[in-house]
Amino acid sequence: MKYLKISLMALAVASALAGCNDNNDASPATTTTTTGTTSSFKSIEFSNMPAPAVAADLAKTYSTSVAKVTYADGTSKDFPLTYNKLFGVKDKVGGNANPAGQLYDAKMKPIMDPMGKPVIAETPDSNSLLKVGSNLFMVSHLEYDWILSDGAEAYKAADWYTRMPMSMILTGITQGTDGKLTVKSQRPIDFSSVDGLWIPCAGSQTPWNTHLGSEEDYDLQYNPLTTSTTTTTAGVKALTEKYFNNEKTANPYHYGFIPEVTVKEDGTTSVVKHYAMGRGTWEMAKVMADGKTAYFGDDGTNVFVNMFVADKAGDLSAGTLYAAKWTQTSADAGGKANLTWIKLGSANSKEVKALADTATFASIFDAVAPTAGACPAGYTRVRAGSAADECLTVKAGQEKAAAFLETRRYAAIKGATTEFNKMEGIAVNDKDKKLYMAMSYVDKGMLEDAKGPADDIKLKKLNAGATYTLDMKSAQKDTAGAAINSDYVATNMYVETALLGEDIAVDAMGNTANPNKIANTDNIFFSEKMRTLFVGEDSGTHVNNFVWAYNVDTKKLSRILTAPVGAENTGLQVVDDMNGNAYIMSNSQHHGDWATGKNAEVDKAIAAIDKFDANFGYIGGLPAIK
User: Fold this and answer.
1) Are strands 390-394 and 423-429 parallel, antiparallel or unpaired?
2) May I ask which residue range the UniProt record assigns to the signal sequence (predicted)?
3) Report field, pTM of the whole predicted structure over 0.85
């Protein structure tokens, strides 16, 4: 087998999962090796498993990769990796009287469909495996709901809900002496104190051991003056009718923020939405090691790179928002650019929430449609969050409301670049001060368009997408010349060769991207101790989506997991040391979401797949990496 060599550098780098490590001292770990001697950990290698080719393999989640651990004395040991399913969305586990994927209203009563059957989301997303005191808990997302129960298809034509009120679940975890994880308890998390939850996609863990979620909807910033039917109106309808049961009308300005979940040792939780971090279609947010700088994945069309700098480390309730300007230096290999930062405003969550309670689009903006591609005097033409252009001007005194409630639009008005497409996960390599940003498709606004309101990004279409690297530096200033109070300010953006997808003519399996390279990068997570960027795919160009391990020092890439045909890999989190074991958390959703008629083995696999059999689980078999 070909191994991905991973040289472990300094082990004193601060971990974003500080609360998950029993041993927080800086002394090197020791392990009894295959020779019986005791030696410190040196490096790890992952073998590159083959892609599945027959129906039995195409239809399941599995790993045949092997991790080879090498110690300082030169000895080594192989650790075969295995995929472990903790539970599925239909399963009742840990004393939960309802299926894990059950959705709930504001009174925590199960939501039922028109047939009187439970509404069960089939979309497991983010995981945060957290050690809180002596207990282990996993916070998990249910992203959205897209399949009606059997017999309810007719209701699609009768205005059934395309955007259900969503949920997170808290699962208590037991860790066996062999490292195996099992479910101890489970319950849904109550978000009624923050008006419910809107499409929680990916997430992350804070340096202070809490869970950061997300609220994503591609059409969140729609213009009600020019748009009649949107997914935002569908979401508001579902929240009003199915979450609040018509006892309250949902306000779209209460959604599109970053929620934080704090888990206590007794399993109780508290939730908050960070209004001061701005409103968008957030795939996720990731806090840097300074505890105050955060970057966001803004998912959708014509989106932007957003940075938040908190006033205080460990407290995301107040701070300053910035938006990036892309100045292109090359159009090759995913493009290269320098980044500068435009300050949008400063605020705390209390004042932004007060604005959200009363604001409307019309109270913030005057808006008209462009005429022949031009706007009237006093208006700015923007393309932000959709393919449609708008002519906007911010009403007097509404700058703060615009900055924090219509963040992407305001960024475009201020001259930031809003041309990125399908921006997904965010990860950080703290030792090298590099940020990684998943761009699932290099398309649409990222292509050259001389007729657009702006044309900062001028790249060639790459359907397979790319994961960008951003170098971060200290002592940076914004475009007005004011100092940015962060040592983690991204200054440029480019793609390393192995992180660039490759489009191909359709092959015999049905792939339209090279199956031996990453396609449509989505979930990403960086392990400081393994010196490895892990990448999960959400691909319409690979028949099966994979999880990859990319060593940032050796530049080698290894496939370590495959999901069922059409399924998206989600919930990616790497825990280097949890009581003597390492874990790669990994879920999958929308199994079987692939067109038939392209390959007989693929068709057999799809026929065998239960689309509701969506996994919460992890890749196990690894020793602690410390």
Assistant:
1) unpaired
2) 1-18
3) yes
